[in-house]
Write a structure and sequence with these properties.
Length: 338
């Protein structure tokens, strides 16, 4: 048995980026073995638009298919019966790994002798019809004929701020074939054991509205809201003290579910609720004048309350204020997660 870890980064992110996101740091921080001595193997998937043509890939989502298939092929080439699969993603990388989990639920993990059918599996998954859905006879037959016994499971999915429609600015939608990339559904699949989602409270670009998971019986799901904008939560700024709360929380959740990290990774997480929050409503997005206040669910990290109540920070988030108004200002009606 071994742990297979797939890490998919956000748009324009690569191993040579000036600032390492949580995803790249997780990939670099995986220990060679877990506590039981099981081998851990890692695949890092570059962000969409990070190779060749960043403008096309980043603005339109071109390359998403390749990213999902690259991750799937790595899994097919390395998976053995009994392995535990861990998936991590940020932004469109979160879309990538959630789609990968959907692909596995639909078509299973191919047996290595059928690795050449990866594109066929992906085509079946993307068909988006009742005849090809996971419960269909066609999908069941595909899994039976080509996938590992039982189809394969995903032990853990951990994502940072999944955004709807790939985060592609709305004026482009419908003209660039984006509709085919929308999620099949927002529920975590039956094949997932544990699902974790760190969500931004303060991201205000309408085109970056979060794509939340809907709770599902049988899946251990935790979806927690954090102070900061989209890239704060993903750990993509040089000063990441505020965003390290999300990084530390997700790492600890993965540890609890059996993953092992190098000490240097955990030691370099330095969360601080007083850390700076960045502004992403500028440049291209400000010119588009598409602004929204997120509807925050009543499950927030403890650092959010500390930041709100710290007079030295002056944190007056419109989104958090909206949540507090909904509960009559009573923090007792909000689940505060440590």
């Amino acid at each position: 048995m071994k742990n297979i870890i797939i890490c998919s980064d956000g748009t324009w992110q690569s191993p040579e980026s000036d600032t390492a996101t949580h995803i790249l740091r997780i990939a670099r921080g995986i220990a060679p073995e877990d506590a039981a001595g099981n081998k851990q193997v890692v695949f890092y998937d570059w962000g969409v638009g990070s190779d060749g043509n960043p403008l096309t890939g980043g603005a339109t989502g071109k390359g998403i298919d390749k990213n999902i298939l690259d991750c799937y092929r790595f899994l097919v080439h390395n998976y053995d019966d009994g392995d535990a699969v861990y998936l991590f993603g940020f932004s469109r990388g979160a879309y990538t790994v959630r789609s990968l989990a959907g692909l596995i639920g639909n078509c299973g993990i191919l047996r290595r002798e059928h690795a050449g059918r990866a594109a066929q599996a992906y085509s079946l998954y993307r068909r988006r019809s009742r005849a090809s859905a996971p419960g269909s006879s066609k999908a069941a037959a595909f899994r039976r004929d080509y996938a590992v016994p039982g189809g394969g499971r995903v032990h853990f999915v951990g994502v940072f701020d999944t955004v709807g429609a790939l985060g592609i600015p709305a004026p482009f939608l419908g003209t660039l074939g984006t509709s085919r990339y929308l999620f099949h559904d927002t529920e975590p699949g039956d094949i997932i054991n544990h699902a974790r989602h760190a969500v931004s409270i303060d991201e205000n670009r309408q085109d970056f509205e979060p794509t939340l998971w809907t709770p599902k019986a049988g899946v251990d799901l935790k979806q927690v809201w954090f102070a900061g904008v989209h890239t704060d939560i993903g750990g993509g700024y040089p000063n990441r003290a505020l965003g390290d709360h999300a990084g530390q929380w997700l790492a600890r959740e993965a540890e609890t579910c059996g993953l092992a990290f190098e000490p240097h990774f955990l030691d370099n997480l330095t969360p601080d609720h007083t850390g700076p929050q960045h502004n992403e409503y500028k440049g291209f997005y400000r010119a588009m004048r598409r602004h929204v206040v997120r509807d925050v669910e009543p499950v927030v990290h403890v650092s959010v309350r500390r930041r709100w109540e710290d007079d030295g920070v002056s944190y007056r988030s419109p989104a958090l204020r909206g949540l507090l108004e909904n509960v009559g200002g009573d923090w007792g009606k909000i689940q505060v997660v440590h």
